[in-house]
Amino acid sequence: MVVSRNGADKKQREPFWKSLAGILAAVAAMITALVGVASLVYQIGGFKPASNADLGPSPEITSANTSIHPRAATSASASHDDIPSAGPYELLFNNNGDDLDADPPRVATGPDTSIDIYDGGGSIQSYPIWSGLAKWTRPGKPSRSDCIAAINSFASMSFTYIKGSRYCVHTRGERHIAFIEFVAPEGDGWRIRVVTWPGTAV
Predict the structure, then answer these.
(1) pLDDT in tens, 17-27
(2) Same domain for 34 and 91
């Protein structure tokens, strides 16, 4: 008697849900369902972070804490724009140059390697030749972080100046960030107005 081949295949073939493909399909369907439920719960606000009231009152910072960790207090304030500036100072700007790392900034009276800027004949030059100078063209006066951002983005070694020109300077000793405004011609140079903040080396 001849047994049909189709009949033998039917006897040997396992149900789909017992095969490897069936198991994998079932696992994939379960994962998809779980992801869908989680997404729905998230959208309706099921995973809200704990509020400040749930977490309890935040610890107060006492004077004792700040006195024990003065450097931590300084670094915390350094991340904001509440760092006090010094000045404004009014200085003569000429070919001798100005030392903006000094406290207060000073005018050089002759050849001086400590200067940060000098007059290159109608242009403000950084000294030594490096990109620590950026022109400030936005309205109002910059903050310390504004000047740092301008220097990091648009620094150059030299700019021509006129009355009212304004510049941010990163001093060569990195002790100060300075903001300079050209006020008026004076003698063999110009009168400039200078404001300084602590630099990145402080």
Answers:
(1) 556 666 777 77
(2) no
